[in-house]
Each structure stands twice: as structure tokens, then as C-alpha cells.
Write a structure and sequence with these properties.
The complex is a heterodimer. Chain A contains 15 helices and 5 strands. Chain A is of the alpha/beta class. Helix content of chain B is 26%, strand content 25%. The chains are: A alpha/beta, B alpha/beta. Chains A and B meet through helix 1, helix 8 and helix 15 of A and helix 2 and helix 4 of B.
Chain lengths: 431, 388
């Protein structure tokens, strides 16, 4: 049959029809707008958090090796953070207090204290600051604290040692909590990438499941409208399956692209919007700073591969039912697999990289969901990506062979419950 | 589209080319035989089929689970003929067509067109009008026709031009830009017919093409059939409407439970029962009681104007006419006729075609569903292959 029916041009003709029908449909327009709105909302989440967070006070404890340094640090930080940079807000965003007991202060970190600054003067008069921060401090405030520390160093220099050269303060950032394995990321970078990861995992999950269902529903519609009888005599099962997956996949990619542009635009203007809404000094770390071209390519690649895998299964599933009502039943197991992958990806975004997450990011039906957040957070070995993509491609090839066979037989099945035995019998009788 | 070539159609297709699997007394096929002078030697499966301008169904067997849909089905259709494939639901008509199209695979046997096995033929060889009609509901008529033409390799502009020409011929030129779901069933059926012929296939397989059409559209479709035949196309249609077959076909095959019961030219098939019929009309007498007194003659289908009278072998029609005249009756109609295909079917199969015996075996499961499933033949619990 394959010699009689080359894949092209019929697969392309079928794909073009599928693409046109989807992209012109109202459902497509509505869902694009809806998903783009959702993506923008998720992208804006840090901004919303900031707005809600606007009234909170960051409590800073300063531990210094001399009362003089302590007093100077507190005074300067207070004036810089609460005066000049934070605008004329009635409530001061920072409360800077002196603390004598370093250990006690560190113990209270994340509880009654958001940040502990350990200030010390080195032998050459050089200042050093250790920033101990917990989970309760945002990246932007941390940035302001660093600027404040720099200010302390400048003013300290002008007060003490105007004749010598200015010595940059030695600033060390120590975040409590697990940052996982692999290359440690800067705190701000990590948070920014997490937002990007959440946005994209969300989009990739929704689109794969939605477009996969489109494929299945398209097959069922062709069966119920009986146009399938014309189709299966005009083109081979291979051409029909590939055309359908390709056409709907491209329609999905169109929607995906639209949503992506909206989300990236939202992330890009977020910083400026924060300035407008929260005043100067409330700058947000640009969330997409982790968004390299390579990462975007990975997103596109995993989307295409993931969609292809799921769509092939959905096409075969759709060919087995003859009524739209039955579709949900047969598609449920597959949706559950996808949901499992989504949950794992959230786990990968929030928790550490456990062995289970690492394994899941290699398993074909989960890797598109789980590998993406891992890649976004930059904790992946090259061989892991290679194995994951290799397994994914292998799974697609195997699924393709089986799906085309099931499809060829399934589309002629009417009026029976889709059972394994009926399926096997039909697959054997089809050509 | 290339204009049809007519070469060879009229050349050398003598009577009696349809091979039939003739049944022996026990109902077992005696083997494939050729009836008539031109019968060629492709009698038994496995023997090489000589290149021939014809469609050969060669001993095709197909099972669905425990049901035998086709049982060594064999017949031959010469190129350029209109051929009627007659049988009740479940006789195997659709399965045969699907095997020819390559949608299903035969368990054994093969189908050849002009000497090439069907698997080796390009898809555009065939035009197929399925029994279950369907189009893409939201596409316009012209979009669908261009789409289906495209799948068969017809360039867009050619397909659009051909489609518009055919729509005009079917007296519905304004349908071109209407969506399929805006059309009536009968009109959708016409569009489907166009989808089947737009790529100018050599063989047209049509499953119950007249079902659901009003008389005007039946006439239009018949005209189209004849035109295609005159262009040299081979048309095969299945039907359980014997009148349509009698009006259209040059040859027919009657199938029952996956076997050809009788096949040949229309005249041959009608004479295959050995019945001799007279259609008789007598002014003022529709009961024709007097015929009981004519030896070897009996009324088998009484009517008001005309009745069908069957004559035994050796009884000449003249004798009937003479008997009527001798009684002083005024004869308004006297016609020596062949039995109807319906009668031929009953004679060969032993029951009327409408009697759907094939549904019986599965009724015991009590699981016949409503809706579209109910009309599927229940003989096929696994796939609806034997729907014919």
C-alpha cells in the first residue's frame, strides 16, 4: 500500500483542509483569546503579587562588629530605602533595626526577620556585607537592599577615608533553603525563570490536550457524518492520519504562537507597568531574562514532539468510537496521563529535582511536560535531553505504526463499544 | 480532464461474459465456469488472469469473525458496461466494493482491473459512491469537490471547472458556494456522486446510488450514468431495487450470502429460470378465471389492466392468445415477456429479496441498537464489512 500511496501530496491536502477549517472556526478564535488572556494573567502574576505586597514591611536586622558601623548602616539604609528610592510612601517599606545576637537573628530569619545583614570592617577598612535572606523576601527588595549596602559603602568611604581609593564593599548573598543540584542560580534569576516555566508548562499542557482532543473529535465527526467512507477510499489511512495531525498541529502552533507573543509581551511590559503602578524603585526583575533562544527552541521542539505523540493516540482513539459522547470515555485515560505529566512538571518547578522527576523527564508521554521546567531552571545534563528526545521520537514512530493500523480498521467500525478484542480483530483485517 | 476514450468498448464484448459460480444441487459451487462463447480460461483461483479489458472478481473470500461475508465470489464485468450488483442487505455487495477499493483485504482471491491486481492500481482508477452519504457539513460544495478532486490528483482549477459544469448539468449551478449542511439529502447525494466522478475514474463503484432520490433526480442520475458509459467508463452499482437494475443494466449478478447465484446479461439472467411469461390484458375481465382451463398456463401476478401469466415449457404463447380469442374476449394487451428480476431472485434464492434473513442469527443476542447501528447488517459483529 505504501508504494501505491505516497504520503504526499494527499497528507498535505488533508492537512490544509484541517488547518483551514480550524483556523476559520469561531471556537478557534474564542479559545485563542481565552488562552492568551490566561497566559497574560499568569505572566502578570508577579506584578499582582507586588501590588498586593505593596503595603508589607521588610524587616531587616543589622548585626555589626562595632556600634558605630551598626548605627551608620542602619541610618544610611533607612534613608536610602525608605526615603530616596521608595518615594514618599506613607508607610516605610523597610524597617531596619540593630541586633546584637547574630545567631538569634539568623534563627528568626523568615519568621520575625526577613533579612539579616552582617556588616564587618576588614583590615584595610573595606566593608563586607553578608546578606542572609529567607523565603519571605522578594527579589526586588533584595535588590534594593544591595543598592542600600552599596550606598553605605560610599558614605562610609566619604566619612572615613577620603584620601585613599574607594573600595567596593564585599557583598555576599546567602539564601537559606535548598536550591537544588547542578549549577546554582542567582535568586532573582531563579524566580524569574520559574515564572517563565509556569507560563509555558501551563500553555503546553492546555494546548496538547486541547489540540489532541481536536484530532479525536475531528475523526469522530468524519465518522458520524459518514464522510469518512469517501475519505478512506480517496486516501490511505497513513495519509489521513498524518494530514490530520499535521493540519491540526499547525493550527495549534498558530494558536500557540499567538499566546506566546501575548505572554512575552506581557512579561516585557511588566517592569514598566510596575513603575507606573507602584512608583519608582518598585522595579520587577524582568521575568523572561532566562528566556534564551535555545530555550525557546526547546519549547517549540517539545511542543511539536509532544503534540505529535499525543495526537497520534488521540487519532486512533477517535477512530474507535462512532459517537461524540463516547469520545470522552475513550480519551479519559490519555488525559489522565497528560494531567500526571502536568502535575509532575509543577513539582519540578517548585520542589527539587528528585530522582522521580529526573526519570519522568525521560518518559515519552511525560517528558514534554517535565523536561521543560527542568530546562527552564537550568538543571539538566545534555545526555538527559538527548535521551529524552530520542525516546520521544522512538515512541512517536512506534505509536505512528500502531495508530495508522488502528485508524485504518477503526474508521469502518460502527455501533460497537470500543473493546480491545474488537480493535485487534479489526486491525488484523484492515490493510 | 481528459475526454473519454471510447475505444474497445463496443469491440468484441459478446454475450455471455459474466462468469458465475454456478450452484450445484447441494448448494456447493461447482467451480467457476464461463458461460458463453468468449469465456476465457481464468476459471480457477491461482490461474493467471489474462490481460483483459474488464473487472474480474476472482474467487474472493472474506470473513468477519465467524461470519462469511464473501464465499469465493467470482464474476466479471466487461469494460464500458453498466453492471448491476443485486442482493439483499448483507449479501456482500459493500464488502466486495471495499476490497476493490483497497479499504479491506480479502482473505483469499483477488480483484483485477484490466489484468492488474487491485492493490497495484492507483486510487484514481476507482470512483466510489458509498451507501452511507456524507460530506463535510461546513465546507461549501465547490470546496469539497476541489478537495476530493485534489486527493485524486486533479488540479484545483480543473476540478473547479468540472465541478461547475456538472452542477449546471444537474440543474443546480447555484449550489457551488452553498455549504453542504444547507442542502437537502438528495442534493447532498448528487454532490457526493460528483465527488466520486470528478477525477474521471475508469471504474465507478456505487453503493445503492438511487436510494433516497426523488424521480427527477433518479432520471438525472441515470442520464449521467449513460453519459459516463458512453465515455467508456465501467459502472457498477449495487441495489436491491430490481426495477432500477432492469432499467439501467446491461449485465447483472445476483448475490446471496457472499456468492453469485446467477449472472450474465440481463436477458440471460432473466431466461436463466426457464420461465416463460406473457403479459395479458383483456377488456372488462381482470380476474382471468378462464386461464385455469388452458393447460400449462397460470396467472402469477394478477393486475387490473394487465396480468402476468406464466407458461409451462412446451406451451406456446400463441395457444394462450388463441384460447382468449376463442372465448370471444377482447385482447387489449399481449406481450411475450421475460420474468422480472424479482421473480428471478425468488426462483434462485428461494425467498423474496426484502426478506432479510441475514439479520436472524444475531437477533438472539438481543443487542440490536437503534439509530444508525440498526441498519447495519448484524451479520458483522466485528466490523461492518459485509454491509451490502
Amino acid at each position: 500500500m505504501s508504494s501505491r500511496d505516497p504520503l504526499l501530496p494527499n497528507a498535505m491536502i488533508v492537512a490544509r483542509r484541517e488547518y483551514g477549517e480550524r483556523v476559520r472556526s469561531r471556537l478557534f478564535h474564542v479559545s485563542t483569546v481565552l488562552l492568551a488572556t490566561l497566559a497574560v494573567l499568569v505572566a502578570f502574576a508577579p506584578l499582582f503579587v507586588r501590588i498586593l505586597d505593596h503595603g508589607t514591611v521588610t524587616r531587616v536586622a543589622v548585626v555589626a562588629d562595632s556600634p558605630e558601623l551598626s548605627g551608620r548602616t542602619i541610618g544610611i539604609l533607612d534613608s536610602i530605602l525608605n526615603g530616596t528610592l521608595a518615594g514618599d510612601d506613607a508607610r516605610a517599606p523597610f524597617r531596619v533595626d540593630a541586633a546584637s545576637d547574630r545567631a538569634a537573628s539568623l534563627a528568626a530569619l523568615g519568621d520575625t526577620i526577613d533579612s539579616v545583614i552582617v556588616a564587618a570592617r576588614g583590615p584595610g577598612g573595606r566593608l563586607s556585607f553578608e546578606f542572609h535572606v529567607g523565603e519571605t523576601i522578594g527579589d526586588d527588595r533584595l535588590q534594593q537592599l544591595s543598592i542600600g549596602a552599596f550606598g553605605v559603602a560610599v558614605l562610609d568611604y566619604s566619612a572615613n577615608n577620603p584620601s585613599g581609593a574607594f573600595q567596593m564593599p564585599d557583598v555576599q548573598l546567602l539564601r537559606t533553603g535548598n536550591t537544588g543540584e547542578g549549577a546554582a542560580l542567582g535568586v532573582a534569576d531563579y524566580a524569574g525563570r520559574r515564572i517563565v516555566g509556569i507560563v509555558f508548562v501551563f500553555i503546553i499542557f492546555l494546548t496538547i490536550v486541547i489540540y489532541g482532543m481536536w484530532v479525536a473529535a475531528g475523526v469522530v465527526t468524519e465518522k458520524t457524518s459518514r464522510v469518512m467512507e469517501l475519505m478512506i477510499s480517496a486516501a490511505s489511512a497513513r495519509q489521513l492520519v498524518v494530514g490530520k495531525v499535521l493540519g491540526i498541529g499547525l493550527a495549534g502552533l498558530t494558536q500557540y504562537g499567538t499566546i506566546l507573543v501575548a505572554a512575552i509581551a506581557a512579561l516585557a511590559v511588566e517592569d514598566r507597568l510596575a513603575h507606573v503602578l507602584l512608583g519608582p524603585g518598585s522595579s520587577l526583575t524582568p521575568s523572561f531574562q532566562g528566556l534564551t533562544p535555545g530555550l525557546l527552541l526547546m519549547y517549540a521542539g517539545y511542543f511539536v514532539l509532544g503534540f505529535t505523540l499525543y495526537a497520534l493516540v488521540y487519532a486512533a482513539a477517535g477512530s474507535l468510537v462512532s459517537r461524540a459522547e463516547d469520545l470522552q470515555v475513550i480519551a479519559l485515560p490519555l488525559s489522565l496521563v497528560a494531567i500526571g505529566g502536568y502535575l509532575l512538571s509543577i513539582l519540578a518547578l517548585t520542589g527539587g529535582t528528585t530522582w522521580f522527576i529526573r526519570l519522568a523527564s525521560l518518559i515519552p508521554f511525560w517528558s514534554p511536560f517535565v523536561m521543560l521546567p527542568r530546562l527552564t531552571l537550568g538543571r539538566v545534563e545534555t545526555w538527559e535531553v538527548a535521551v529524552s528526545i530520542g525516546l520521544l521520537v522512538g515512541a512517536i514512530c512506534a505509536t505512528y505504526v500502531v495508530a495508522v493500523r488502528i485508524y485504518g480498521a477503526g474508521v469502518l467500525l460502527y455501533g460497537q463499544r470500543p473493546g480491545l478484542r474488537a480493535l485487534v480483530a479489526a486491525a488484523r483485517t484492515s490493510r | 480532464m481528459p475526454e473519454a476514450h471510447d475505444g474497445g468498448r463496443k469491440g468484441g464484448n459478446p454475450v455471455g461474459y459474466v462468469r458465475v459460480a454456478q450452484l450445484g444441487p447441494g448448494g456447493e459451487p461447482k467451480g467457476n465456469s464461463t458461460s458463453g462463447p468468449s469465456g476465457h480460461a481464468a476459471g480457477r483461483p491461482g490461474e493467471p488472469i489474462l490481460p483483459r479489458m474488464s473487472l474480474v472478481i476472482d474467487s474472493v473470500t472474506k470473513r468477519f469473525a465467524s461470519t462469511v461475508a464473501l464465499d469465493r465470489l467470482s464474476f466479471e464485468v466487461p469494460r464500458g458496461q453498466v453492471f448491476g450488483f443485486l442482493g439483499a442487505n448483507g449479501a456482500g455487495k459493500t464488502t466486495t466494493m471495499r476490497i476493490a477499493l483497497g479499504v479491506l483485504r480479502a482473505d483469499s482471491g483477488a480483484i483485477y482491473w484490466n489484468g492488474s491486481p487491485s492493490e497495484a492500481l492507483p486510487r484514481r482508477t476507482w470512483g466510489y459512491l458509498p451507501e452511507e452519504r456524507g460530506l463535510y457539513p461546513r465546507m461549501t460544495v465547490i470546496e469539497q469537490l476541489v478537495f476530493f478532486g485534489g486527493l485524486y490528483g486533479v488540479p484545483k482549477d480543473v476540478a473547479a471547472r468540472e465541478a461547475r459544469a456538472w452542477l449546471a448539468r444537474f440543474r443546480v449551478p447555484d449550489f457551488a458556494d452553498r455549504r453542504a449542511d444547507e442542502l437537502s439529502k438528495g442534493n447532498q447525494q448528487k454532490i457526493q456522486f460528483l465527488a466520486a466522478i470528478l477525477h474521471d475514474p475508469e471504474v465507478l463503484l456505487m453503493d445503492e446510488p438511487f436510494t433516497g432520490l426523488d424521480p427527477v433526480n433518479v432520471a438525472l442520475l441515470r442520464e449521467a450514468f449513460l453519459e459516463l458509459r458512453d465515455r467508456g467508463k465501467t459502472l457498477i452499482f449495487s441495489t436491491h431495487q430490481m426495477e432500477a437494475a432492469e432499467a439501467m443494466c446491461e449485465s447483472v449478478a445476483i448475490v446471496d450470502r457472499g456468492r453469485v447465484v446467477v449472472g450474465g446479461t440481463l436477458a440471460e439472467v432473466k431466461r436463466s429460470t426457464g420461465r416463460r411469461m406473457v403479459i395479458l390484458g383483456i377488456a372488462g375481465d381482470h380476474q382471468l378465471r378462464w386461464i385455469a382451463d388452458v393447460p400449462g398456463a397460470r396467472v402469477i401476478r394478477p393486475g387490473i389492466e394487465r396480468s402476468q401469466v406464466e407458461l409451462d415449457d412446451g406451451v406456446e404463447p400463441d395457444a394462450l392468445l388463441a384460447a382468449a380469442l376463442a372465448r370471444g374476449l377482447r385482447v387489449t394487451h399481449f406481450e411475450i415477456a421475460d420474468p422480472s428480476l424479482e421473480q428471478v431472485f425468488i426462483d434462485h434464492v428461494g425467498r423474496p429479496m426484502d426478506e432479510d434473513v441475514t439479520l436472524a442469527p444475531v437477533a438472539s443476542t438481543g443487542d440490536r441498537r437503534s439509530g444508525d447501528t440498526a441498519q447495519r447488517p448484524a451479520t458483522s459483529p466485528r466490523a461492518d464489512g459485509p454491509a451490502a
